[in-house]
Amino acid sequence: MTAQAKRNDLVLGLPKQARLREPFDAVMNQAGLSFISAGKRLDRGTVWDDNGNAIPAYEMKPNDALNRLRERVVDMAVVGYDMLREFNARAGTESAFVYDALPVSPCSMWVAGPAARPVKDWRDLAGLRIATKYENTVRALLEENNVRGATVVPAEGGSEATVDMGIADVVCDMVATGETLKACGLTKQFRVYDGSAVLVRRAGETETQAMKDLRVRLAAAAEDLARPRPRVAPLEQRRVYA
Question: Taken in order 209, 212, 217, 220, is the CA torsion positive or negative?
Fold first, then answer.
């Protein structure tokens, strides 16, 4: 049977950036799914399951994936929760999407700064300069928490260095290990939210069987990978009883 004949009524947007794509590939492998590219330098291909069913898929950066989802070019997309939240804050699309969190690539958004200048909550940010790549999210949170006089300093990358440059007092960024913050002489001050990969679809539309099957399959695989594994002693340390 040809791929066209077995194609589901579903088009998927896959993450393109390595930070999310590599762990998500492990989830797909656990779920019995594999992405086959249509060719070198092409961002399109097919996700195949272990029964030979095909889902057309495109590798996309998060903003492109969410725009294509809104335009009905794709039906589901995998992005980071941080990027979904920033997209919604910029475009006012909070009610346009629903999502399921996957325990993949977990990290948290933190406000961080020099230890000598502690910042305990949003109120302490009044009058400070905040460097971040999530400028729309931060502006919305400042307004939500009635913070006045704070300045958002856009920083596409390397926001941690802006404090040393003297152009920011604190940073607001996603943190996984905190090693970069520490190297820049900054400490985590307060947590804004926890994030991970999310599987996003349009709100207000009936979930097809193909969409539900994929959602359930990916969630089960991600949960299985996230489950702690028992430690097994090296072979030479195991006791063998006759």
Answer: negative
Q: How many CA atoms lie within 13 A of 154 on its CB side?
A: 4
Residue-level pLDDT at 94 = 83
Identify the band that residue 171 occupies on the pLDDT scale cut at 50, 70 and 90: very high
Distances (CA, A) of 35 to 12, 15, 26, 111, 230: 11, 12, 11, 37, 30
pLDDT tens digit string along 78-125? Answer: 999 999 999 999 988 888 999 999 999 999 999 999 999 899 999 999
Task: Count CB atoms within 10 A of the CB of residue 5.
Answer: 7
User: How many Å apart are CA 197 and CA 212, to the nearest integer?
Assistant: 17
Domains of the chain: 3-106+195-226 (3.40.190.10), 107-194 (3.40.190.10)
Cβ-Cβ contacts under 8 Å for 159 (sequence gap 6 or more)? 131, 132, 133, 168, 171, 172, 173
Sequence-distant (≥ 6) Cβ neighbours of residue 41 within 8 angstroms: none
pTM for the structure as a whole: 0.86
